[in-house]
Amino acid sequence: MKRREFIKVTAAGSALGLASPLILDVLGRPGAFAREMTRASGEGLREVMKKVVARALANGGQYADVYLEEVLRTGITLVDGTVESVEYGIYRGGGVRVISDRKTGYSYCDSWEEDDLMAAAGVASRIASAGASVEVKSRDPRNIPTVTGYRLAPDEIPAGEKVEAVTYADKVARAYDAAITQVKVNYSDEMKRTFVINSDGAWGEQEIPLIWVSLDTLAKRGDKRHPGYVRRSEKRGFEYASMDFIKATATEAARQAVDMLDSVDAPSGEIPVVIGSGGGVVFHEAVGHGLEADGVAKGTSFFTGLLGTRVGSDLVTVVDDGSIPNYRGSYTYDDEGTPSKENVLIEDGILRGYMTDILNAGRLKLELTGNGRRESYKYFPLVRMSNTFIRPGPHSHDEIVAATERGLYARNLGGGEVDTTTGNFTFGVREAYLIENGKITSPVRGATLMGNGPEILKRIDMVAGDQAFWPGTCGKGQWVPVTSGAPTLRIAGIGVGGRA
């Protein structure tokens, strides 16, 4: 049975109370949609997928895999107390990949039916056609403890409870301060079920929930105005979106906007910068992509050929770990069937390893790290980060600030970009303050961090123990959920672009 449905309700211009009955009628029955879908057993699918792998290698090749995915997704957007849109989607499909030397063939279909998957396997096989075929290996499924457990499956929660959550967020943000004039709340959840099998005998099956809540706020006082933005996301069930959680998230988004109303122009030049706990997204962009093995295999990464050498200060240990329970970048198996695990990439400043997938681990003769990820069944896997972070250090937040005579405190970061061949990056700062005589003082606006990833690793001279993690979505031709983490730390000198 093919299943690919998408429902969207638009309630823009309607008061929340008037829109809710329509929303509840369409989205109040998620369980009914779920029950309508075919729930084939994992064991039955495994036999079908074995046949598809064999078909994929019929024309030769060194490796093949099959990936099946089923997603139930809900999205609600509320703008200034009005429900702007509600979406509910059901997606199902499968992809087949064949690798032959350096050629990759990939084909997908919006179906789990055996005939459709066999046809996709034939296409992938022809794209990567080679000479001799290989033996398809088999082994017993591995009993790997799940890392994305949940109590309340989001697809079984009535839409009314989700609408109540976004409405409460709007009320909390507005109640924080009279200066808050605009609030936008985005809520989304999904329940994803995946199966993967490959010709090396790997088999993975998992069910993964995901919750995302973000708030945009705007504060105005006289002719001053400033936005605030907060996002929260984990791979948990609807229990994650508790009222306490919603209150804390909305309060933080409002606080950020109000506190920045009196900001002055940021300084410019090379100065010490203290990055607040959770600011690991800088290192995700500036360093993490250079540690992905596809760039190393091509020789385009700035970390190519540096294994065993010093690449950062002895306070820097960088880890990628997809096995941390319930983080946004977590998973039991990657999308090639390799179990997730902790991977120490840089230890005390020494480069120890790279993140790999099956293709590039083979090219570089490295172990599999469980970092083969894809956006959906429509894409073949790439080497991607999961939960990437800098480990805590020996200092405290207050100690780091007190030791900085003049500098910038970057409390909340925005987006950025990096050139993975050179490590040069730019990064926006959403919330920043001056540090003067060892104290955090005036808020500043318009700050941008500019530097070189490998160079700033060497300039980290203080690291605190207050590690925090922040969710994100990483783009690399495909989008995947990730988490970045770091404690408060100081970069002794980094370029700051500002107006002052």
What class do helices, strands and sheet pairing give?
alpha+beta
CATH class of the largest domain: Alpha Beta
Low-confidence stretches: 1-29, 31-38
The main β sheet shows up as: 7 strands, antiparallel
- The helicity comes to 10-25%
How is this structure best summarized?
The chain has helices at 16-27, 30-36, 42-56, 114-127, 159-176, 243-259, 281-286, 293-298, 358-364, 397-402, 453-459; strands spanning 5-10, 63-79, 82-100, 103-109, 180-198, 203-221, 224-234, 264-265, 269-275, 318-321, 342-347, 350-351, 372-373, 382-383, 387-390, 406-418, 424-436, 439-445, 448-452, 460-463, 468-475, 479-486, 489-497.
Task: Characterize the structure shown.
- The strands form 4 sheets. Strands 1, 2, 3, 4, 5, 6 and 7 form a 7-stranded antiparallel β-sheet that branches. A 6-stranded mixed β-sheet has the order 12-11-10-15-22-21. The protein has a 5-stranded mixed barrel with strand order 9-16-17-19-23.
- The termini are far apart.
- A hairpin with an 8-residue loop joins strand 13 (372-373) and strand 14 (382-383).
- It is α+β, with helices and mostly antiparallel strands.
- The protein is 23% helix and 39% strand.
